[in-house]
Amino acid sequence: MAGELERLRRWKEEATEVLLGMQDLGKALGLPLGTRITGTLAAETAKCLKAERDEAHAAIDRVRSLHSQDTSLLLPGEWCPACGDPVPCSTIRALKEPAGGDGQ
């Protein structure tokens, strides 16, 4: 009996740590207490968040690439979000176009 009680105590301790970790994850995601963060819906949400992050990183990489390549035709009042320098106009056009635009 004492062995069973010890096993259950350890299980409860481990389960409590998992639950606290799940609460921390929910807080980090800005979810209200009680929102389910496991299962298919949670996995799909995580995939969407990852895709958004990947798209943002790709846009940042495009801006950095254009910024480093084009030093002509600076537009007054426009500034590079990456470095704070004035931005070339092709960089601004790229920012206003959807990803994969031809830039024209």
Describe the structure in your own words.
The protein folds into two domains: 1-38; 50-104, no CATH class. With 104 residues, the chain is mostly helical. It is elongated and about 75 Å long. Helix content is 62%, strand content 9%. The mean pLDDT is 76. Strands 1-2 form a two-stranded antiparallel ribbon. Strand 1 and strand 2 (86-88) form a beta hairpin. It has helices at residues 2-28, 40-69, 89-96; strands at 74-79, 86-88. The relative contact order is 0.08.
Quick take:
With 104 residues, the protein is mainly alpha-helical. 62% of the residues lie in helices and 9% in strands. Strand 1 and strand 2 form a beta hairpin.
